[in-house]
Amino acid sequence: MKKYKRGQPNLYKYTLANTNLRKEKSTSADIITVIPAGSMVQVIDGEEDWYEVSYNGQRGYVYSDYLSKTKYTWTDVTLRSYPSAESNPVTTILPKSIVQVLSVNGDWSHVMYDNQEGYIFSYFLSDDGNPPEGYDFEYFYTDMTMFVNDNQIKSPTTNLITTDLENKLTYVFEKNNDGLWKLLYKWSCTIGKPSTPTIEGTFYVNGRKPYFGSDTYRVKYATRIRGSYYYHSILFNAAGTEITDDRLGMALSHGCIRLAVENAQWIYDNVLDKTTIIIN
């Protein structure tokens, strides 16, 4: 699997409809060109609701709702010509492979893989490339400290972050000298709304930005989970001078996890790259 670098230069997505390539991250920005539906674009960077992309040598911004969704296979999977186990196979996809989901049709996902179009049974796709039964989640929603220690969760650094999507809580742990995880913080957070859910699985911190936004908002202290998904602050105005939405404990975002400003800053300042993140 290719290494992620500021939006994953080798990641390609597909347009779901005729899509405007704009000069800035704004629906009122000048249009560079219209990208036809079904076109492949190269992702340069992602920031929750906008992607910076390259198309036919032209670079600009596309609203995320008009692009395919990235998923990973967690086992050998057959790409089929129609959403049926009896349909003709197109190719076999290896575990941990990236596919781009165009739409979901019942239990089947309509996808692009290696520039080939077909259908995959959705159960075999995940946000992180791991099977759904990876951990024992018995205590995940009731006793997070017991969950991380009973499962002997590993992290390349002395910290570990978990987010409970059901209760909308984010936890930060520090490793004790005895190798067990000690809870440092438990914070209320806001997660993705049902139409743009937060990704689930095991991830690793890979980069950060002091802020990002558009002509309508700004967020601060953004720590990347994967791709265009971040832990970041609640919403500010575009200038970053005034908080415009401080709601926490809700499902409102485009998929990122919002935290109080001081909490987002703590992760941004203290949690190292490669730190393990578990979201469920």
UniProtKB/TrEMBL annotation:
<keyword id="KW-0573">Peptidoglycan synthesis</keyword>
<keyword id="KW-0133">Cell shape</keyword>
<keyword id="KW-0961">Cell wall biogenesis/degradation</keyword>
<protein>
    <submittedName>
        <fullName>Uncharacterized protein</fullName>
    </submittedName>
</protein>
<comment type="pathway">
    <text>Cell wall biogenesis; peptidoglycan biosynthesis.</text>
</comment>
<keyword id="KW-0808">Transferase</keyword>
<dbReference type="InterPro" id="IPR005490">
    <property type="entry name" value="LD_TPept_cat_dom"/>
</dbReference>
<feature type="active site" description="Proton donor/acceptor">
    <location>
        <position position="232"/>
    </location>
</feature>
<dbReference type="Pfam" id="PF03734">
    <property type="entry name" value="YkuD"/>
</dbReference>
<dbReference type="GO" id="GO:0008360">
    <property type="term" value="P:regulation of cell shape"/>
</dbReference>
<dbReference type="GO" id="GO:0016740">
    <property type="term" value="F:transferase activity"/>
</dbReference>
<dbReference type="GO" id="GO:0009252">
    <property type="term" value="P:peptidoglycan biosynthetic process"/>
</dbReference>
<dbReference type="GO" id="GO:0071555">
    <property type="term" value="P:cell wall organization"/>
</dbReference>
<feature type="domain" description="SH3b">
    <location>
        <begin position="9"/>
        <end position="71"/>
    </location>
</feature>
<feature type="domain" description="L,D-TPase catalytic">
    <location>
        <begin position="159"/>
        <end position="280"/>
    </location>
</feature>
<feature type="active site" description="Nucleophile">
    <location>
        <position position="256"/>
    </location>
</feature>
<dbReference type="InterPro" id="IPR052354">
    <property type="entry name" value="Cell_Wall_Dynamics_Protein"/>
</dbReference>
<dbReference type="InterPro" id="IPR038063">
    <property type="entry name" value="Transpep_catalytic_dom"/>
</dbReference>
<dbReference type="InterPro" id="IPR036028">
    <property type="entry name" value="SH3-like_dom_sf"/>
</dbReference>
<dbReference type="InterPro" id="IPR003646">
    <property type="entry name" value="SH3-like_bac-type"/>
</dbReference>
<dbReference type="Pfam" id="PF08239">
    <property type="entry name" value="SH3_3"/>
</dbReference>
